[in-house]
Design goal:
alpha/beta; Rossmann fold; 10 helices; about 40% helix; about 25% strand; globular
Amino acid sequence: MALLELEGVDAYYGRIQALRKVSITVERGEIVALIGSNGAGKTTTLRTISGLMHPTTGSVSFDGREITHTRPSKIVELGICQSPEGRRLFPRMTVLDNLVMGAYTRNDKAAIASDMDRVFTLFPRLQERRTQIAGTLSGGEQQMLAMGRALMAKPKVMMLDEPSLGLAPILIETIFSIVREINSQGTTVLLVEQNAHKALEVANRGYVLETGVVVQSGTGRELLASEEVQKAYLGM
């Protein structure tokens, strides 16, 4: 049984259909990439999983239970957490306070402290900046904080929405190596990313979305080698 599964999902913004019969699966322990151009439906897919949008038809299941109409706060408690596009930090709060906010659904104090240590080990820069106001961090540091905050929810599935957006090439390398490290420590990752090459390099499997439809799927290696993917997303 897949850890996370969307089956035949249709979703609308008003009268505009954003997703058409989208079916994807994420197995425990995988990194799965969702690639596609702007407006393809990638973020809508994550919003549907998070419970911020509800599909008109189809279903979303997680860890053996249906969560199609579950409220977002409950979905976080169940173990799905998102690092959103644009980071969406609390800009006037410190790095430390932002991380603490990530654990708002938890009351296991000892485990929270241990997860804070884990975040500081993954992102030493955040430990150096822990008393700094989040809005004054660089773009790369803000991305690290958004990912660290998501990890503080202790997710079984971590959804990353455009983690490399607007970052310098050297920082993009750092972010993707941390994605690999998070996954190797046991967290399943669903990755939405415009940098298709980088996403497919780290992904076990991937799906290609075009105008709300899954048009292709396969292993990361298969999609990197696909002529259609190369032409459309890899600039070849």
